[in-house]
Every structure is written in structure tokens, then in C-alpha cells.
Amino acid sequence: MLNTDFMLQVAKATIKGVPVTLEIVIVSLILALPISFVFALLRLYSVKGGNQFVKLYVSFIRGTPIIAQILIVYSAFPSLLASFIGKSAFAIDPINYAYIVFTINAVASLTEVFRSALQTVDRGQYEAGTMVGMTSSQIFRRIILPQALVSALPNLTNITLGLVKNSALAFIMSVKDITAIAKTEAAFNYSFLEAYLVLWVYYLIISYAAELIFKSLELYFGRYRKQVKKRHYSNKEQLISVTTDKRRSPAQG
Amino acid sequence: MLKIRGLKKSYAENEILKGIDLDVKKGDVITIIGPSGAGKTTLLRNITTLESADSGKIEFENIQGDYSALTRQETKKLRQSIGFVFQNYNLFNNKTALQNVMEGLLTAKRMPKQEARTEALKALERVGLLEYKDQYPVQLSGGQQQRVGIARAIALKPKVIFFDEPTSALDPELVGEVLQVMRSLAHEGTTMVIVTHQMRFAQEISNKIVFMVAGRVVESGTAQAVFENPRAERTRQFLAETLVQY
């Protein structure tokens, strides 16, 4: 029923798109992480102006569909750039626009993630830090940040998976990612289902790999949260020794 | 050694501390007792700059002046020469017991790692938790966590240690181990200021009792004087209410 030969052919052709998809995801994440972290701090410390700006930014980005953002960036940026650097603006690799859109998008959700993660570390630990003589920045770096990052990881996983899936929309900007290649193959051979099934598998594999990586990060860095089998050292052992003592004592006496 | 005069603190319209005087001499074990809402915890938090007092004078080491006018340097110095043990332990959750104790030595005292480790191990040994040094706080019982909290404070060799209801968050069967550690500290001559509801314990280890009600010191004196021969009617009443349970 399915043309497996063709599916293999599509798989081979599409694999060239894997690095492109990964690039979009990784570059956007790397750009978005520091920006959103600063944004989260602006929000948390209610920095005048900054706070309002970030609030507006977040609701603006979260309140519009990503496809609309793509269309706007893709139509606005090249002509905007062209007015500065001339016609060469149209020769820029479109993947750069993909970086911009997906970064803008990831910043909005990551800001909220960092904000709530930083709030999960209770104030008591901060106070304890000041009482052992640490400075605020030492407490932030050594106590609060490491814990906040760990509690941000599950949400970070979600956002990364979202990014993997949303990156499929990059084909609109004529970026040659796996979706774009699979679509071309499909249209060329009039075998849409086969091509799209292959595409499906590719996304599954990428997402699963991302999930595995984040899970192991979480396990490794979050090991301090794991309750290893609790030692019932005190009461029971004492009780046992007391009862055995009692059993012995009449014999001794 | 530590002299507090006229310490005042208000939250919004409520005056919680209405001018408190406190003298701590080297080797003193002072217990502050009193009904809930008397301002005992607030007093500790304000003395130690965890909260900023509205007014009041402090004399400590070479710091002399008003709480409202402490410089950043003075605050830092004050914090470095005192220890604080919290009701909720407040251990650093991302650090092992040993790392918890080492943290202040490494950062505030800038001690080399090896030396800090040695000092921290000594402190853990004093609270009897050497074999738990590599456990994270979640893996410890409340009593053990509080003992790590005490080790963290004593490792820094503070001039005076403040205990804010150190056993209030503990299951009853875990209270004893923490009191035992405090008792041994007291016997070794550690200067301590304690807020607690463990009245028998207070009577046993303190050389001075401060009885507070509604933001004022009603009565203070030796443990014997306050417990066996209270002068103020309010003290008698409080002791009758709290000691009857035993």
C-alpha cells in the first residue's frame, strides 16, 4: 500500500534538513536564554520601565500566532534592511529570519519560565546566606540560581519541544529544513502521505532525543532533590536494642 | 559584649517592639520567653539586621551607633561576627551537609577549600553528624537538618549565636537531639541568645531569662529568680500557664 522505496528516498533526501532544523532550534535557544533571563530579572525586581516593557512584550508575543509573526518578520525585515544596505539585503540566507522569529518567540515563554523558577527558591535560604556573611550576588550565584535553573528544566523541555515543532513553519520563509524538503519531495512525486509520514518520524526522533537530553540534565543537576532511602536509624534500632537488653537482663540477674 | 538600647520596630501602624534593652556578656546563655506575638522573633531578626529596626542603639565589638544609621560595612561586620539558627533550618537545598557548613567559610571568610573542609568537618562532628556529611537536606530528618544549621553557625566561630525557636518546627521525638547539641554548646561556653517555648530547657541552661509581653521586657533576671520567684504578676501568670503542662 505504501511506497516504501519512495519513503526511503524521502528519508535520504530529508536528512539534509535535519541540521537546519537543529540549527534553528539550538541557535534560537542560545540567543533566547540570556535575553529572557535578563527580562525575568527586570520583571522580578520591578525595574522601572523595564518591567512594563517586558510585560507588554510577553503578552504581545503570546497573544499572536507564530505564523503571523513569521509573515510580519519575513515581509518587514528584508525591505527594512534593504533601505540601509541596498539590494544585498535580499540575498541574506532566510535562516537568519528564522532565528529572529523563533528567538523572539522563545524569549516570551522563557521569560515567564525563569521568573517563576527564580521564585521557587524560598526566601529563607537567602536569609541564611546573609547570616553566614555572603553577599547578595554570592547568594544569587551559588544558592538561588542553581536551584532555579533545575526547577526551570521541565518547562525548558516543553519550550524546546515546542520550538522543534514550530520550526516546521520555517519553510514559509523558504528555509530548507526537513519540512521544506519533505514537501518538495512529496509534490515532485505526487506521494504526499509517504513523505509526510517520514517527516513525522523525523520530528518524533528529534523530540525524543531532546527529551532524553533534558531528562538526564534534570536527573544530574537535580540529584539534591532526590530522597534516597531514608535511614530509619534512630527509633527502631534503639527499640530493638532495648528489647534485647531486657530479654537478657533477667538471665544476667 | 553586645548592648542593645531602645530597639523599636513597627509594621505599618503596629508597633511590635516598643523599646527593648538587652545586654549580652561573653559566655551568657540568655533565653527570651513570652507569649505568642510578644515580639521575640522580631527582636532577634532586628538585632541581627535580618530586618531593619526603626531605631535603637547597638554596641558590639567596635560597632557603635544607631540601627537606623548602620553603614553597609558595619552591617557586614555585624553579620560576620554573629550566628543565626532558624526555626525552619533554611539549609541550602542544593548543597550537602558538609557544603552547607563550608559555604560561609569559603565565601565570607575566604578560607582555602582544604581548610574550610577541615573546619566544617569539625563543626559537623560537634553536632554528631559526621557520617551524614554527604547527604543533601531532603535526605535528613528535621532534627538532623537543624543540627546541620547549628554546625553551619558554629563553624564561623561567631561571637554570639542567635537561636530563633530552633525546635518549633520539629516532631516531638526529634526535639531532644537538637536541645542536646545546644546544651553541649552552652557547657562549652558559647554565647547564646535563644527564643524558645521549651521552658524546662530554658530554665536548665540559661543564666539569664528575659520575659517579653507585647513588645516590652516585663521582667529579666537569672533563671532561678524568674522561674522560682517572679516579681511581675504577668510573669507568674505566664509561667503558671506554660509550666502546668509538664
Automatic annotation (TrEMBL), chain A:
GO MF terms held by the record: transmembrane transporter activity
Transmembrane domains' residue ranges: 20-45, 66-85, 97-118, 200-221
Organism, scientific name: Liquorilactobacillus aquaticus DSM 21051
UniProt keyword list: Amino-acid transport, Cell membrane, Membrane, Transmembrane, Transmembrane helix, Transport
Protein name: Amino acid ABC superfamily ATP binding cassette transporter, membrane protein
Record's subcellular location: Cell membrane
Gene3D superfamilies: MetI-like
Family annotation (InterPro entries): AA_ABC_transptr_permease_3TM (IPR010065), ArtM/GltK/GlnP/TcyL/YhdX-like (IPR043429), MetI-like (IPR000515), MetI-like_sf (IPR035906)
CDD domains linked to this entry: TM_PBP2
